[in-house]
């Protein structure tokens, strides 16, 4: 993810869009129903088809949205006139369903994680052709991430030196067996969230070292290709209601707390032993904070927007409509994350390259 994320313009409601993508959705379980379908209200799309192996669930959901119901993707691709499909099922099924949709000539947005193994992402890439594929790593798309990247690209941040992530996470002790068995461990299900943020702002990773505590917590060290180090603190302790990132550069550091508070810390001009005010004149120093307004019924304070659901789906729609390949959330980005995931499982205290040289 080397290029800055495109700044999205003013939001346009679905009913206001001049051009709409004809989309179908595969999988309308609770996640899709809570987080994906409501987001369509703010996107230039027309939901024409709903597919789920639970026939009754497909029918009642399709009726709500005025779409056609299917229990078979093959039937949907044969009968429905679609531009794109949204895939939100188990990651064990993502590769097969994504390849099927690509072979049917459709653009694909798919939920994270894209697969169970890195090699499966490479297989999806072999089927992609000229179609757009975006993986829904929401923390790579959320407004807080976009603001952090904007600051990092500015003249004052300087060189990325290090990055710290704190997230309620553990890692399995039997990592090699997890990969062998094909387990859907929490390290993949939710660990991909902080990893996607860390790679979105830090870039590609060359090697990973994990030191695991007795109960599963510990530290995951990322060696970035640009020379920076990332420290992913695996905060053992259950579902802690806290998530924090700190990005350190030459000119200051950025913090992102709970996905909704971004702070740019630049320090103040001072003379040691002489300066008496922590708030000297001027506004080009100190700390600037961005956070949602919660006193108004605005959109920017709603989870669909703060968490990145809108941004990831809007980016996918824009790429398809404008005929350009995805950079953010691309298969290349997804492959980098899956390689870090696998290397971390295999580390066991040793330095593990993300790509094993033959």
Q: What is the topological layout?
A:
Elements: E1 21-26, H1 30-36, E2 45-51, H2 55-65, E3 68-70, H3 73-79, E4 84-87, H4 94-103, E5 107-111, H5 118-128, E6 133-136, H6 138-141, H7 143-153, E7 160-167, H8 175-181, H9 186-189, H10 192-202, E8 205-212, E9 218-224, E10 229-234, E11 244-249, E12 253-257, E13 261-265, E14 287-290, H11 303-306, H12 309-322, H13 331-347, E15 352-353
Parallel strand pairs: 1-2, 1-4, 2-3, 4-5, 5-6, 7-10
Antiparallel strand pairs: 7-11, 8-9, 8-15, 9-10, 11-12, 12-13, 13-14
Helix pairs in contact: 4-5, 5-13, 8-13, 10-13
Q: What does this 3D model show about the protein?
A:
There is one protein chain. This protein is an alpha/beta fold. The chain has helices spanning 30-36, 55-65, 73-79, 94-103, 118-128, 138-141, 143-153, 175-181, 186-189, 192-202, 303-306, 309-322, 331-347, and strands at 21-26, 45-51, 68-70, 84-87, 107-111, 133-136, 160-167, 205-212, 218-224, 229-234, 244-249, 253-257, 261-265, 287-290, 352-353. A 9-stranded mixed β-sheet has the order 14-13-12-11-7-10-9-8-15, with helices on one face. Strands 3-2-1-4-5-6 form a 6-stranded parallel β-sheet, sandwiched between helices. A hairpin with a 5-residue loop joins strand 8 (205-212) and strand 9. It starts with 20 loop residues before the first strand and ends in a 5-residue tail after the last strand. The model is unreliable at 1-8 (pLDDT under 50).
């Amino acid at each position: 993810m080397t290029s800055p994320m495109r700044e999205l313009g003013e939001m346009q409601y679905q009913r206001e869009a001049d051009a709409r993508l004809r989309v179908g959705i595969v999988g309308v379980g609770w996640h899709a129903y809570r987080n994906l379908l409501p987001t369509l209200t703010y996107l230039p799309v027309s939901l024409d088809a709903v597919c789920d192996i639970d026939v009754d669930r497909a029918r009642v959901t399709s009726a709500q949205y005025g779409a056609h119901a299917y229990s078979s993707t093959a039937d949907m691709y044969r009968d429905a006139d679609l531009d794109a499909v949204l895939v939100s099922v188990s990651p064990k099924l993502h590769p097969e369903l994504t390849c099927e949709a690509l072979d049917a000539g459709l653009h694909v947005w798919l939920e994270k994680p894209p697969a169970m193994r890195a090699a499966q992402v490479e297989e999806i890439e072999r089927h992609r052709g000229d179609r757009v594929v975006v993986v829904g790593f929401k923390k790579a798309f959320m407004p807080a991430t976009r603001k952090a990247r904007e600051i990092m690209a500015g003249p004052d941040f300087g060189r990325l030196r290090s990055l710290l992530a704190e997230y309620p996470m553990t890692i399995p002790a039997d990592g090699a067996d997890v990969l062998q068995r094909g387990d859907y461990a929490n390290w993949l299900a939710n660990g991909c969230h902080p990893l996607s943020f860390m790679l979105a702002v830090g870039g590609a990773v060359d090697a990973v070292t994990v030191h695991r505590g007795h109960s599963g917590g510990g530290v995951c060290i990322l060696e970035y290709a640009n020379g920076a180090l990332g420290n992913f603190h695996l905060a053992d302790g259950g579902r802690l209601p806290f998530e924090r990132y700190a990005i350190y550069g030459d000119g200051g550091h950025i913090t992102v707390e709970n996905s909704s508070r971004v702070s740019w810390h630049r320090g103040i001009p001072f003379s040691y032993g002489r300066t008496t005010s922590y708030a000297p004149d001027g506004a080009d120093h100190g700390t600037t904070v961005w956070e949602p307004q919660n006193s108004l019924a605005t959109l920017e304070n709603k989870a669909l927007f703060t968490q990145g659901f809108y941004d990831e789906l809007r980016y996918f729609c824009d790429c398809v409509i404008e005929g350009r390949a995805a950079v953010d959330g691309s298969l290349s980005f997804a492959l980098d994350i899956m390689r870090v995931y696998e290397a971390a499982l295999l580390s066991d205290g040793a330095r593990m390259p993300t790509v094993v040289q033959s």
